[in-house]
Amino acid sequence: MTENLMPLWEVFIRPRNGLNHKHVGSVHAADAAMAMQAARDVYTRREEGNSIWIIPAASIVASDPANAEENFDPASDKIYRHPSFYDIPDDVGHM
Amino acid sequence: MYSQGLIGADTATKETAEFLAEFQARIDAEEKIEPNDPMPQAYRNTLIRMIGQHAHSEIVGMLPEGNWITRAPSLRRKVALLAKVQDEGGHGLYLYSAAETLGVSREQMTEELLSGKAKYSSIFNYPTPTWADIGAIGWLVDGAAIMNQVPLCRCSYGPYARAMIRVCKEESFHQRQGYELMKSLTEGNEDQKAMAQDALNRWWWPSLMMFGPPDSDSQHSDQSMKWKIKRFSNDELRQKFVDATVPQAELIGLTMPDPDLKWNNSLNNGAGGYDFGEIDWDEFWRVVKGHGMMNKDRIRARKKAWEDGAWVREASLAYAAKQKANAA
Questions:
Q1: CA dist B159 → B59, B169, B320, B325 (Å)
Q2: Cβ B12 vs Cβ B44: under 8 Å
Q3: Which residues on B lie below 8 Å from A65 (Cβ)?
Q4: Taking an 8 Å Cβ-Cβ cutoff, which residues of chain B contact chain A?
Q5: Is the CB of A6 less than 8 angstroms away from the CB of B314?
Q6: Residue A1 belongs to some domain of the structure
């Protein structure tokens, strides 16, 4: 098996209008048209969606899990970013 | 098939005790492990092996049933069988995708299947000589697979768990169509009833073997349970399957081919369950090691499909490269 590797595409499906496209998996295909066809066959056999996005897997830029702490932990001590941090009189009702 | 995936697994680890303890703490806290997270090499190897074998089982599993598509006795049965076989292909693809997130290529997995290095479930090395076999496969083989796969939806490795959720949603129809098929045969003439009973006789024991070797012989299970790759032992799942399936057979007037099968009030912590006879583990190991009735046929069929498709893969890649060059 010395041939070129078949490119990998990530597949995103929107279940219905009003919702986001959501990652569902991946397919291998030589080009975008074949990837779209494969994604349709593999991921929408039971009305799972009405729209498909496919993206070359190599084009995705991901954050490094090794940096997860410095990226995301600082948010946990910034409780003043949440509404419940602020005291207001009960009498004011819903705000 | 998933427990069989652990046969021969290398679960030795070389990481520091501190790293392993940290990893175990994440597992114990029910955190999911995602593709780029640090993980012990043995955790990675076990999953590559297990998910790869699961994927191969889905793909090879298309063959025994595909054998009957052109001869299905009605259009209703034919569309159901076509949809089921197409689902198995889809399940194989979800699983290959999940395995690839661990750093193994699709090409490498395919090569390992074709060379015999990677295994697939022993059940697919049995032949399907009659139409009733299609019913027995849906009811028993898919039934056993569901028993195995439902706990895998909670596997500690995120991509595998997510693939299993999709598979389980789709698999329920497979079992129901098989049971319905068997039921309609048992409501037919004497020959049809006999055909259903004969299929059950041939598939019952191999279905029990799908859960893998007994816990007493299953040296890789402990570590996999500790890492929450598996949630139940082989014997626990096998007992659940027997308890669920025996009443289903009785309901449609079929008899399990096991003279030792009897109700035992003390099983399952007093809830009761079925005692069953000795499984022929020599047969199991023979089939796993390549000496089942259909091992050679199955690999020959997969090789032919791969080789016959080579020109399509080459042409599509050449076309894509040309389109890209023209656009540049």
A1: 19, 16, 29, 35
A2: no
A3: 34, 36-38
A4: 34, 36-38, 83, 86-87, 90, 93-94, 97, 100, 105-107, 110-111, 163, 170, 310, 313-314, 316-317, 319-320, 323
A5: no
A6: no
Locate the chain A residue with the closest alpha carbon to B90.
A42
The reported pTM is: 0.91
pLDDT in tens, A51-84: 999 999 999 999 988 888 899 988 888 999 999 9
A71 located within any domain: yes
Q: Is residue A59 part of a domain?
A: yes
B317/A8 touch (CB, cutoff 8 Å), yes or no: no
Q: Which residue has the higher pLDDT, B177 or B7?
A: B177
pLDDT reported for residue B246: 98
The count of domains in chain A is 1
Q: Which residues of B touch A27 (CB under 8 A)?
A: 93, 97
Mutate to test the interface with A, among B94, B97, B101 (most CBs of A within 10 A): B97
| Lowest-confidence region among A65-69, B19-23, B244-248 | A65-69
Would the ipTM clear 0.90, i.e. be above it? no
Residue A45 in any domain: the answer is: yes
Task: Give the range of the structural domain holding residue A63, as residue numbers without chain letter.
Answer: 8-87
DSSP-assigned letters across all residues of A24-70: EEEEE-SSHHHHHHHHHHHH-TTS--SEEEEEEGGG-----GGGHHH
